[in-house]
Task: structure prediction
Amino acid sequence: MSIGFSQTNDVDSLALELAYQTQDTLKIETSIKLIKSLYDINDYDRALKYIIESEKLSNNLNYNKGIAEITFYKALIYAKKDDYINAVSGYEKSKALFYQLEDTLGVAKVNNSIGLIEIKRGNYAKGLQFSLAAIKELEKRDLLNDLRLAYSNLADAYYNINASDKAIEFYLKALEVQEQLKDSKGTNRSNSQLAELYSFKKEHRKAIEYYEKVLANKKTINDSIRGRVYPKLGGEYLKFNDYDNAAKYLVRGLRLNRRGRYNEGLLTALNNLGDLNLQQGKLILAEKQLLEAGALAKRIDNKTELLKHYRLMKSLDSIKKRFDRAFVWQRQYYDLKDKLNKEAVKISLEEEKPVELELNPNFDKPAVNNEVATTPKTEPIKNKEEFDRFKIIFYALLAALAIVSTFLVLIYLKRNNNIKYTQELEEKNIKIELQNVAFQEQTKHLENVNNVKDKLFSIVSHDLKDSLSSINGFIDLLKDGSLSREEFDNLIPELSENANNASLLLFNLLNWSKSQMQSLEPKPSLFDIQEVFEDKVKLVEQRMESKGISLVDHSLRDFAYADRSMFEIVVQNLLANALKFCKSGDTITISNHISNGSCIVSIADTGIGISKQNLEKLFKSSSFTTVGTNNEKGTGLGLSICKELIELNNGKIWVESTQGVGSTFYVQLPKSRPNGD
Result:
């Protein structure tokens, strides 16, 4: 407000001074100052009124300096109103007058203005020529306002013709001037452009530095700018696998862009969040975000982000083993990439590039006088023979040009066909590769299923059949009356042992089959270890008593975080194993304690122990079993099931044993939910 009030006072003061001015040339000079002040405060209509009056007076006095300045400001106003034809015409007229007056500064300002309007219209190469022609004079006089405009123009032009190093050079120069002039808006723009350029050059640390400078500029920062910068800054942190900072800025960007309905920023945030969650294995969330990003990219026609979307969706479906869908994304990715490459080639061919960028400021200096340059007249062809000779040469050159053109067209068509053929071949190879991976996965799965089937049949046909046959035999003898009461009472322990063996066999067989079919999913909760021991000890008390084995219970009330039913299976197997390999008079000891925030459970016995050779075979996926002290049989699956169930619950299981002394099995489980679950 203070600056605006000061400028208004300047305008009023100059208008008052102009009203009392008597000398014509002084009136023109004062009028030019007033026009400049009105232009600076964007009061173009009022400025044009003074321009018309001053132009008449300058023409009447033939005052070229005044005409040049007035024509220049009139062209500036036309440019602000997007009247390109009148603006360029005015610039050319004023520049011709500045040349006559040998006013190098005036020429530089005109060239800078022409450069701005040409760059704005997309004529980057032409704009570069004019802006470069102005730079040296503006730098020599240290005209910061004009240099700010010139540097920004040049940087924009180089940016748009993909000359990234030159663009960075001039954005840095513009930034230095903008900081001196305390131009917060210009500083923001230069920092943003520098960040994008460094990101394109894969200098991601510098990109982060300049994006953070934009966010640090509190004077001009708003939700629109934050919404644009947050997702890009998060994407830069993602390049370094700095997931914490990436997530922080991407989530902020997502919320801000959704609230403000900034589609471009929202699209960048969704794609980068999808990439982040894909890298962290959060596939469901990644898929949801990427699908939303794809729909948005198509709606707002952002081909760059759509290309990124295709690439990420291909990776997602490959990880999820949906290879048919991954191939479709791959195909769409290459089609769009090929289309964008062709458009880039077309633009580069159409864009007129300057042969030499460091030009002389007088590269387009008009002629000072109005004399028309004449070319020497060619002598007439002396006779018809000489004319015919020229005619033959002309037609020969024309024919040669046609042949060369045809040859070049054929080369171009052949090259395009080769590129298309190569691309089709690559796509077929990718499809075959994806099909091979899917086939290998299917083959491996079928082999596993077949192994499970063979193992299942083997156990059912041998171990389970033996136990059931023995039980059935006892029942037949009893039914036929072949056994006396005393003989039957003597056989009851053996019958009970066979029934227990069959029960444990079926129990382990069921759990092993489920694990092999990958249908076991833990449902963890906090439970009391001592309660599980009490329940499972009751199941084996009778067998322990009949075999003459004593139990020592050192268990304590303590809690573990795991699937209780799975832990019960493990305890039941370990107690059954201890009972199986103990003799009459042996002892089984159960206990538990806390170690480094984990719960340690142990089941020890004073039985026959395990040899070093057999210790190495325990917990393997292949079955291994030995008969017990009373010739008890097993499937060899119990310990492998225990290992799998404990590992599913983020725990560990191991054994310590000395042959002839006894064995101790240990189980370690977490006491709380592991981090990241």
Observations:
- DSSP finds 23 helices and seven strands in the chain.
- The longest helix spans residues 384-480.
- Confidence is low (pLDDT under 50) at residues 1-6, 351-361, 367-382.
